[in-house]
Every structure is written in structure tokens, then in C-alpha cells.
Amino acid sequence: MIDDTSADGPSTGPAPARVILSAADIDRALTRIAHEILEANKGSSDLVLLGIPRRGYPLAQRIAAKIAATDPGFDAAASLGQLDVTMFRDDLRKNPARAPQPTRIPVQGIDGRTVVLVDDVLYSGRTVRAALDALVDVGRPRVVRLAVLVDRGHRELPIRADHVGKNLPTSSQEKVRVRLAETDPDPRPAEHADCVVIETPVPAVRA
User: Fold this and answer.
1) Looking at per-residue confidence, does 91 or 10 come out higher?
2) Position of motif PRPP-binding (predicted)?
3) Are the C-beta atoms of 23 and 190 separated by less than 8 Å?
4) Does residue 116 sit within a domain?
5) What is the distance between the alpha carbons of residues 6 and 3, in angstroms, rounded to a whole number?
6) What does the alpha-carbon distance between residue 122 and residue 131 come to, in Å, rounded to a whole number?
7) Residue 33 lies in a domain
8) Is the model's pLDDT at 6 over the cut of 50?
9) What is the pLDDT of residue 4?
10) Helix (H) or strand (E) holding 53
């Protein structure tokens, strides 16, 4: 367990974080997703992986590397991209917009190809809806699929992932955090260099 509770006690500190997936668990999940993608696509022909920032992109990089290791005909560098969804979100009026990340589309484009969107956590589905809107601006794929490391439920839109690393039942009050070496360099034990944690809210203690 990674305990983030402060010394002041659970009523004032952040919620304790419980590790759900270790680095080894994440690696196995991504290996399985890579094989599922190849099987669904019947090979790597016309396959493009687009990661959704921030953590979807390094996950897409890892999946692309695993596909290339299985299928030498797959050019990971030429089949990998990043799709920023910031300006397509439906909550821009309520929440300050995060700084947009660059959208990078492979040189050969996505028209007529199989595009796999990659993200870290599937929750309400609104980020994926924004990604589908953003995709319209860059081309017309033959088919679009979705791969996520964690599906935690609580959908608000009719969106389903095709490839899931782990289905994780949670309450809406809990927070699911994906921490990757590329995006979250805080010191952690080696086995948790990559990890998925659940933060459970701590009830306030009455004085």
C-alpha cells in the first residue's frame, strides 16, 4: 500500500492510496491488449494507434512496441500518434482548460485505416466522446476501436472499450490514479514505477 495520509491525521490529509496494479501487472495487461488488437485486426495491416494525452500516449507507445515485437512487419514509429481532445471537451465552461498537447498524426494519415484510441482510464466516457469528435477533424478511419488500461465503470455515455487491461469496480467517490514512469516521475519503489492506485476518501473526523 502507498499511504499518502499526512501526519495530521486522515481528516486533513489526502486519501490513502491502495495499489491495484503493479508495474508487472501493467506490463502483462498491455501485452494482452497488444495481442487482442492484432487478433481483432487480423494482423497489423493499416493499423494506427493514437494515444490520448496525457497518459494514453506512453501507453500507446508501449503497446506499439509490443505489437512490433510480435509482428516484425509493423512499423511502430510510423503507426503511432497522439490525439489531443482538450478543445473538444464538453466541460470547458465549467472547468479551466488544460494546456492543449500537440496532435500528431502519422504521415500516411488515418483515412481508411483501423485506428485504436488508447487511454489510461475509462470512466464517464466523455473524454472518448471528445476524442471521436477530434478524430473527425483529421480523417475518416475505416474503423475506430478503444483500448484502455482500466475501465472503472460509471458511464454517462453509451461508450464501451474493445480492449481492457482491467475492469475495476469502484464507487463514484473513489479516485483511480494511473502513475507511469514517463509522466509521473515521483520517487516510488521499483515494483511501483508504473502502478494503478485507488484513493478512497477518508470521512471527516468531528472535533
Assistant:
1) 91
2) 115-127
3) yes
4) yes
5) 9
6) 12
7) yes
8) no
9) 40
10) none
